């Protein structure tokens, strides 16, 4: 009798649970799927962030640098590791969000009673829609992946993307964010980027095309320019930012008003603009010592300014 009563109680309990699940099972299941998706994304994001932080911290320790900006005094490869790791971390976070969101949607549809055949049909429909109407998104996605994994750019790089140029602040699956010198933040679709000019990789070259009077002693001016640049390269403040001996490439152009002489200095990529401004200041002061009255550039047409040696 006791066993029969116990079985009856158990059956009643299971019936109550079944009745409750029939009434509230779907809403609860959907809620759990949504919460689970957020928890999964948080875990994946935390794991990616921990890996990125570990790589960056390891590079800083090896470079004995207190912050990422100080890595400019370290070998370039270490700077690239930091920038590329952060860019890849940004891309992986975005990719994880899309994947977890898609899985959560499929799970929710299953809870709501949509059968597997319908899910397959929906996937086929979405695939067809993607092939017709989402070609741009797919192109953005693939181009973004290739740019990051080929190390075309990284967070912190100074780049020229054609319509926008500046410092890369974020690299996503679909959009790359670039802040220009005026502070404007540009959102550039990855699929629309057909060329990348990266000024933060390898080395850079400061080029100064200095106009001097037509009747000047060319050899004397060239010697003076080379002396100015050489002194700057030997200055302790610039010793580690100028990576090669300065060169005077000679006369770049001649007109009735002036002669243009080209001076070039190779620097670290991160020091190009700062070194260029300092070198121009020193050139001006050095030519003042020679008593030269420099001609107005408004009356001079300089040819070949963007040509290489």
Structure keywords:
309 residues; alpha+beta; Alpha-Beta Plaits; 2 domains; 3-stranded antiparallel beta sheet; 8 strands; elongated; disordered C terminus
Give an overview of the whole structure:
The chain folds into 2 domains: 2-198, no CATH class; 203-299, Alpha-Beta Plaits (2-Layer Sandwich). It has helices at 2-63, 76-111, 116-133, 135-149, 218-234, 272-289, and strands at residues 158-160, 165-171, 175-179, 185-189, 197-198, 203-213, 247-254, 258-268. A hairpin with a 3-residue loop joins β7 and β8 (258-268). The chain has 309 residues and is α+β, with helices and mostly antiparallel strands.
How much helix, percentage-wise, in residues? Answer: 40-55%
* Share of β-strand residues: 15-25%
By secondary-structure content and strand pairing, the structural class works out as: alpha+beta
Mean pLDDT: 77
Tally of separate domains: 2
Largest sheet: 5 strands, antiparallel
Keywords: Cell membrane, Membrane, Transmembrane, Transmembrane helix
Subcellular location: Cell membrane
GO molecular function: mechanosensitive monoatomic ion channel activity
Pfam families: MS_channel_2nd (PF00924), MS_channel_3rd (PF21082)
